[in-house]
Amino acid sequence: MSLSPDVLVIGGGATGAGTARDLAMRGLDVTLIDRGGLCSGTSGRSHGLLHSGARYAEADPDGAAECLEENRILRRIAGACVGETGGLFVGLAADDEDYFEEKYAACTEVGIPAERMDPDVARELVPELAEDTERAFRVPDGVVYPSRLVAANALAAEEHGADVHPHAPAESVTVEGGSITAVDVGGEVDGTIRPEYVVNAAGAWAGEVASMARLDVDMQPTRGVMVSVEYDGLGPVLNRCRDPDDGDIVVPHDSEAVLGTTSVPVNDPDDYEQARWEIETSIEECAAMLPPVADAPVVREWWGVRPLYAPDETERGGRGISRGFFRLDHAPDGVDNAVSVVGGKLTTYRLMAEDTADLVCDRLGVDAECRTAERTLPAAADPDRLDEAVAAFDGQGPTDADVVETAD
């Protein structure tokens, strides 16, 4: 197969699929490839929180505001790709009251709707909330079902003329005269793609993709564990209101609760330890907020790898609260038709895609506005069709395996 699109997007997670959708909606000829099924990397192995921005409000108010805006956009356009749950920030007796007050004040400053709740009222929402809960406030968190979200973005890209190829790994990149002229692709493509522009949206693997073009994208991936346990009807997302630490979030699904997470640097996003202590710590710490999960049957366990940009993480000390994104234009590095987009959060994937598409259009001389915030995703009101698309793109991740129904 030989293709000559305007843009080749490498990486079929939320950001890559979102970028392909955005560019295709602006009238460009787009090809999207991924080495595995869509959503097989970080997006499909997250805890699936739809951030209100509250987790970042005091340390990264600009990032918190981005989360809040994108949260509202996804609720409008994504339908069955998200769950409307709400969220609680919970302060236990052992937790710092000053931190709670700082968090609440920061939410108010950013504009995040935050409602103080008496602990007894919080227990009406979550009857099995810990007895030593002393403080709580409510925020508009939610849940993302990433398998559906990525599939919906890929469907939208296809509807606007894009070619989408899962199981099509980039194998080599040819750079001539300061431009990428060819990308050899294996798997289901098994041929050469000659794009005018290349978007590296490979997440934690962005450094490996960049190196094929003799570019340096210095990633510092960190692993985090998620544990899904049987727990019916939790209601809101639970966030431990303390300095970020292991086991400080519980994300509800219909009959399960996802407990997480840890943050441990890894050298290779494909080869890293999966330590038992991470599972045990996440369960123990989450049980401090919601005691019954300590003994709840475990349904599945999985690790994800965050696509963190090393210069930012070094500045912030490793477990930095920022999960901001970075658009790396490679023209100053000697390759004038390539950009890498790294970092970020699942909640802000659409914004990351818009920012990246803006650069690509500027470079290609395309005068077209982003429309992804206004246009509803395909099949947003039809979960059965979404799940069929997940199967077609081989896009099932563990995060929402109990929600998405695909044929065996």
TrEMBL record:
It comes from the Archaea. SUPFAM superfamilies: FAD/NAD(P)-binding domain (SSF51905). This is Glycerol-3-phosphate dehydrogenase. Residues 6-326 form the FAD dependent oxidoreductase domain. It catalyses: a quinone + sn-glycerol 3-phosphate = dihydroxyacetone phosphate + a quinol. GO terms for biological process: glycerol-3-phosphate metabolic process. Keywords: FAD, Flavoprotein, Oxidoreductase. GO terms for cellular component: glycerol-3-phosphate dehydrogenase (FAD) complex. It is an enzyme of class 1 (oxidoreductase). It comes from Halorubrum rubrum. GO terms for molecular function: glycerol-3-phosphate dehydrogenase (quinone) activity. Its cofactor is FAD. Belongs to the FAD-dependent glycerol-3-phosphate dehydrogenase family. Its EC number is 1.1.5.3. PANTHER family: GLYCEROL-3-PHOSPHATE DEHYDROGENASE, GLYCEROL-3-PHOSPHATE DEHYDROGENASE, MITOCHONDRIAL.
